[in-house]
Design goal:
This protein has 191 residues and is an alpha+beta fold. 27% of the residues lie in helices and 29% in strands. The strands form three sheets. Strands 1, 2, 5 and 10 form a four-stranded mixed sheet that branches.
Length: 191
C-alpha cells in the first residue's frame, strides 16, 4: 500500500510522530515543525480534535565572523506578562571594564526583578530547558499572549544572555520563535 493510500491515523503512525518524545522533536527544528504541522493536518483530516498548541523555539548567538552558537541546557520560562527590563544607554564610549560592570549590573537587576515576579500567582505559566542543540518546546499551551523569558545565569559561549520576547499562541497552531542577538532584553558581552 502506498503511503498516500493510508488513512490519516495510519499516516501519522507511519511517520512515527506519535512515538517521538519532546527531546526527539528538539533534535531538528525544521523537521519538527514539518512533522508537527503534518500531524495536526492529519488529525484534523481524520476528524480528531487537536489537543493543544505548541510553542517551539531556539536560542543562539552569532559572532562577528558569522558563527552561530546555540544555547545548551538553558532554563526557558513562559510568563503571563512582561517585567521591566533595565534601560541601557550607549555602552560604546565606556572602557571595557566599565562596560562589563554595567552589563553585569543590568543582568543582575533583570534577574532580581524576574525572581520577585516568579513567586507571584499567575505569572509563571511553564518552564522548560533547551536541548544540547539550543531548541526548546512548550506543549499544550492555552491560546493567549505570553512572554518567553531567559535570564541569569544563562550564558552562550561565555556571553551572558537575557531575553523577554512577546509571543502569541493561537488555537490549533504551532508557533516557532528564535531568540538571538537581535532580540536580547539586556545587552551581552563576554564574562
Amino acid at each position: 500500500m502506498l503511503r498516500s493510500e493510508l488513512d490519516p491515523i495510519d499516516r501519522i503512525s507511519s511517520l512515527n510522530i506519535l512515538n517521538l518524545t519532546p527531546a526527539d522533536m528538539l533534535l531538528n527544528r525544521h523537521t519538527t515543525i514539518t512533522m508537527a504541522a503534518t500531524c495536526v493536518l492529519l488529525l484534523v483530516a481524520a476528524g480528531v480534535t487537536y489537543a493543544g498548541e505548541w510553542l517551539l523555539g531556539d536560542l543562539s548567538l552569532t559572532d562577528d565572523a558569522g558563527k552561530r552558537t546555540y544555547g545548551q541546557y538553558i532554563s526557558v520560562f513562559l510568563t503571563s506578562r512582561a517585567i521591566p527590563a533595565p534601560r541601557h544607554e550607549s555602552l560604546k564610549p565606556l572602557e571595557q571594564h566599565q562596560r562589563l560592570q554595567r552589563i553585569n549590573r543590568m543582568h543582575m537587576k533583570f534577574f532580581k526583578t524576574f525572581s520577585r515576579h516568579r513567586a507571584r500567582p499567575g505569572y509563571l505559566i511553564a518552564h522548560t530547558e533547551s536541548s544540547d542543540t539550543g531548541n526548546f518546546a512548550f506543549f499544550n499551551i492555552p491560546p493567549g499572549d505570553y512572554f518567553i523569558v531567559v535570564t541569569f545565569p544563562a550564558a552562550i559561549d561565555g556571553y551572558k544572555v537575557a531575553w523577554q520576547q512577546p509571543v502569541t499562541v493561537r488555537p490549533g497552531r504551532v508557533r516557532y520563535i528564535s531568540l538571538n542577538h537581535e532580540n536580547l532584553a539586556v545587552p551581552t558581552d563576554r564574562r
